[in-house]
What we know:
The complex is a heterodimer.
Chain A: H1 9-23, H2 29-48, H3 52-59, H4 67-74, E1 76-80, E2 93-100, E3 103-110, H5 116-121, H6 129-144, E4 149-155, H7 162-166, H8 169-180, E5 187-196, H9 197-201, E6 208-212, E7 216-218, H10 222-230, H11 236-243, H12 247-252, E8 258-260, H13 271-290, H14 294-306, E9 311-313
Parallel strand pairs in A: 3-4, 4-5, 5-6, 5-7, 6-8
Antiparallel strand pairs in A: 1-2, 2-3
Chain B: E1 17-19, E2 24-27, E3 33-35, H1 36-41, H2 57-64, E4 71-73, E5 77-79, H3 91-102, E6 108-115, E7 118-125, H4 136-152, E8 156-162, H5 170-189, E9 194-202, H6 204-207, E10 216-219, H7 230-237, H8 248-253, E11 259-260, H9 263-281
Helix pairs in contact in B: 4-5
Zinc ion binds near residues 30 and 51 of chain B.
Amino acid sequence: MPDGLDFEQPLLELEAKLAELRADADGAADEIVRTEERLDRLRRRVFAGLTAWQRTQLARHPKRPHTADLVKLLFEDFLELHGDRVFGDDQAIVGGLARFEGRSVVVVGHQKGRETREKIARHFGMPHPEGYRKALRLMEMADRFGKPLVTFIDTPGAYPGIGAEERGQAAAIARNLRVMSSLRIPVIAMVTGEGGSGGALAIGVANRVLMLEYAVYSVITPEGCAAILWNDAGKAPEAAEIMRITPPDLLRLGVIDTIVAEPPGGAHRDWEATAASVRSALRLALDALAQLSPHTLVRERYEKFRRIGAWEEEAAPRPR
Amino acid sequence: MAAWFKRSDDRSPARTVVVTEGLWIKCDSCREIIYRAEVERAGHVCPKCRYAFRISARDRITLLTDRGSFEEREAGLVTADPLNFKDTKRYRDRVRAAREKTGLGEAVVCGLARIGGLPVVLATFDFSFLGGSMGSVAGEKLTRAIELAIDKHLPVVIVSASGGARMQEGILSLMQMAKTAAALQRLAAQGLPYISVLTDPTTGGVTASFAMLGDVILAEPRALIGFAGPRVIAETIRQPLPEGFQRSEFLLEHGQLDAIVERADLRDTLCRLLVFFAAAEA
Lengths: 320, 282
Ligand SMILES: [Zn+2]
């Protein structure tokens, strides 16, 4: 099992055994049932006790559905649109026009590669400024034509490189944050894998922020956090635990609105079931937002982000 | 992000003033040994390379505003510890130590002020408060400052000096980027100008939100300005970085800034800009 994670191994072994039993024509039916029950119990136990680091590994699982995979399963008639009209076409972000259950929507998402060559071409899902500008162009188009915007977040972060800095990485992200806050259309963001830092948020200022059950969303990758805290990226598992990056934590902190269930064993085990789950969450959010006026959509989105944070107010300014 | 939090033992790319004993200091930008009194006379500027040393929020306010005009707001807004965060130290203890060290409530100081007689809302970072990092309080103070400007129909000046989002408040720090950017959108919709002043260093989530959204963006000479920290970039691309990379002059050359302004001219430049915008409104 080349792509199995450590904590998946016992499950994968039991599954292999079950497959053997089923393949055996003389196999005892009651043993199959017993093994199925054992597998189910084991899976529940493993997934109920996942650490934040194990969740991070699931969020990055090489077989997890990426934006393009979800787009294929969720939308009809997707037409990809390329380029920022200024510098280039950043393949770390894909975007285009699509139909969702009879509705026209504009779709934007981070795109990681799957094979080595594609991973490199897509910079492992880490966008350059031109990627954010492509996203911006599509968002503005959605706004102009009154089409809802759906974004899929799956990036370790914006690309750290010389060209990215030369071409204004920070300004590109900043501009997206600002423009997204003023879009007069329904905006739905879904964190599907890794939501890493400003590179994720740059397509994440939405009326509804949904999150897959085993996705993570954080200010910096656990590796980056560990490198800063302990000068040792190898301590990422420890960092993941203290950063509060899992959906239940983010729901409690008011950062996301909905946790979207994944099939048993995680999204990578069953893309179809994952898509079905995403589909119903998306339908629900789109239906709710379709009721709101452009003005209300802007105000509601503003207020949603306006509230986020934790502070204390001292009764009087401290003497100095 | 959060590059401010570098351990003191690694080769931090951020500029620091190494205080040698007595009358002389070393400029870490050009590495020349310079006469302390001369640096102080010039407003904490290196006489050799024009690098503007980091100064406190209080000194910045004195430098930029009309004497006695600054009225602090939101000083009672203080840090909570929403994640109950502890690494080698507890976050609460780090904040307490920063408050004692700086005499400030948080990394951002904001309020009403006059510059050349013109009223503004001014917010300024203090890098010595946990590296000027932006957590919930900094984001909330900036947002309230922008809202105050909308309410009073005033321009906004923000002076940044920050390593980016504050890691100890995790995702809540990240969200301050969206909050401040959205507030600036509202300010712009009211036809009110925003002048962003970038000082050494301005990186990470601060650069990638309000700092790069100014109607006019100014920077002090030789300030480190960027999204990713230079060390992270060097490790990612496994190449040495070009000379002057991510300095103010580099950003100007690449079209990211409106102007580089010497510290001694900053107040006058702000004044000219404010006069321009005030006149345009009439
Ligand atoms: Zn110098």
